């Protein structure tokens, strides 16, 4: 047993005190290591060692729980179409993916952060920041489209804000994608088809799509290169439904008599009519990426990444309403069951998006393993083109064009710079330090147009702008006290500024004030290796999550004044801790982990109604205090009971409550929105032989609430946040050395569940892959 464990611990980037964990790969990787014959398996080495030739955001010393999955296990266990699918079964994580290719609402939720808190996690790919920290919410999701499943080599997830190397946005988790770089010539092609039968309210249709991906790369001496292209063509099910409260109707005979409206209840239990399915997105996404790397010396590598992501989206509407002659009704005054309702032209509206986002990444890193090493990383994410179009006239006239508005986000983006160093004065200490800069720029211009489909922008309707910048210095030292004790001490000083904010209506532009503030966040971790099989560790860290520009520069223009704005909006300040016990199982093939976590967050940022002022104001405000206590259990084991059977499971309990909120007293004592009390995942994968693998995955989430006062008691409806229990199936067969095929079913039990919008119902996925 000792001969297996000790080299594994040495190989891990954080040594004995913090062994690297992997939700589905740890046991396999650990079993391949031996004291006298270290494995040369590339996937294994890359998983447990932070190598200098792999661009990554991860620090060398990791003072926190880490989970992950590699390419082999993604291919074996997950029906992966989008990059976020790789996170599907990792403990405590949930991505709010509504349909294949969901580009603007797929928020990552973590232990104590829900799917409305996109700014409480950070996502990187090859050291490039993908998280959209211009705002916090459903429309500021990570730019998942800049990574395709076929290029992923591994994904690592760090839980909590315990590393000084990350900003306060890491309070939930840090996700790090590392994509492939070849060691020799290789080429890959993959074709995927998928189809969903969707039944909800008055909609009963099939929605399908396809994806084609290809990549090629080579390494010739010191130079290596990689090219990946991908096209996704997806018809998504409707995600929104036009509705009117029954109580809003005016009793009488006025309005056009219509049939087809669906009776239901909203999340507050009020009766309403569902009149149409909207937001049926037909999405075509193109992805292209070029990666170049050059070994300047055997211990110094430079790499460059250029990526382009394009998205063309057209949404359509399915009205349920019919008049007496059977004609479809889209707008105007209608009469349903003796009451008149007014359907505005934009209640059932089409829309179009044309996006082209570009990213650059530069990474230079030394890997001498000597006294000094250093690293330089820089990235740029640019909204080169970001156009959204919508009509202001009703269907069907809008189908031919007509008046509308054009929203132009061009010029929006962010850039990052990191300078890092590693100092190893002796065998007991490893110090990491550095300077980091992040700059964000948000630009939005809404203009009127005479033709919403193709017309040019004319008169300004509204505009918004704002910049923010974060300059940080960090230092942490890992001290191996002796063979059984290790500690990591660190701190992060951050200088934050927000400036050049302005908001406009059609005729007036008003500027916001400037903000400059400084914060310090200490970090500490201690680990005790009780035996070769058991490790105990504890971590504590402070995180300060700065307001994003869209949260800070909120409001509207009224009579030459900015209203509904809080110029003194405070950052979120969290103290997070975790205590873990990790037990090796099955002669090193498995691992059982128990982690208790606690988080106190002061001044949490939420949209709420301030009841202390008259009239009441609803906007982004500070919630005084939210407290979360929880327990996470994670298990993985290989060759359980029989050879070829691998199991992985996790269960998370979170008691997350609002404990103080003076502005909205009704929320005190209620559950934090979108954080369920229970989450669980289970994956069983069986390798019948070298050709055939079958996998069953199960995902569970308990009841959630969407409102701070938990008034949304009816969860299984549009706007609701429901529990779910879904099963996924995947069967993969390797036809020969180069060809493989797979078929899978997501949501096998066809559970209908909601996170404001409906999730995907039962879907079939089939793929054919070629590897050379």
How is the topology of this model organized?
Blueprint (H helix, E strand, L loop, with lengths): L1 H10 L14 H6 L10 H7 L17 E5 H7 L16 E2 L12 E2 L12 E4 L2 E2 L22 E8 L13 E7 L6 E15 L2 E18 L2 E13 L4 E6 L4 E2 L4 E2 L4 E4 L5 E27 L2 E20 L12 E5 L2 E5 L7 E16 L5 E20 L12 E5 L4 E11 L5 E21 L10 E21 L4 E20 L4 E3 L3 E15 L4 E12 L3 H4 L3 E3 L2 E3 L8 E14 L4 E21 L6 E21 L7 E16 L17 E10 L4 E10 L22 E11 L4 E8 L7 E2 L1 E2 L4 E9 L1
Parallel strand pairs: 4-7, 13-17
Antiparallel strand pairs: 1-6, 2-3, 4-5, 6-7, 8-9, 8-41, 9-10, 10-15, 11-15, 12-18, 14-15, 15-16, 16-19, 17-18, 19-20, 20-21, 20-22, 21-23, 22-23, 23-24, 24-25, 25-26, 25-27, 27-28, 28-31, 29-30, 31-32, 32-33, 33-34, 34-35, 35-36, 36-37, 37-38, 38-41, 39-40
Main location: membrane
GO molecular function: siderophore uptake transmembrane transporter activity
Membrane topology: Multi-pass membrane protein
Would you mind describing this structure in some detail?
The protein is mostly beta strands and 772 residues long. It has a single domain (2-771), classed as Maltoporin, Chain A. 4% of the residues lie in helices and 55% in strands. The chain contains five helices and 41 strands. The protein has a 26-stranded antiparallel sheet that branches. A five-stranded mixed sheet has the order 1-6-7-4-5. Strands 12-18-17-13 form a four-stranded mixed sheet, with no helix packed on it. A hairpin with a 4-residue loop joins strand 37 (724-734) and strand 38. The longest helix has 10 residues, at 2-11. One of its GO terms (molecular function) is siderophore uptake transmembrane transporter activity. One of its GO terms (cellular component) is cell outer membrane. Belongs to the TonB-dependent receptor family. It is found in: Cell outer membrane. Keywords: Cell outer membrane, Ion transport, Membrane, Receptor, Signal, TonB box, Transmembrane, Transmembrane beta strand, Transport.
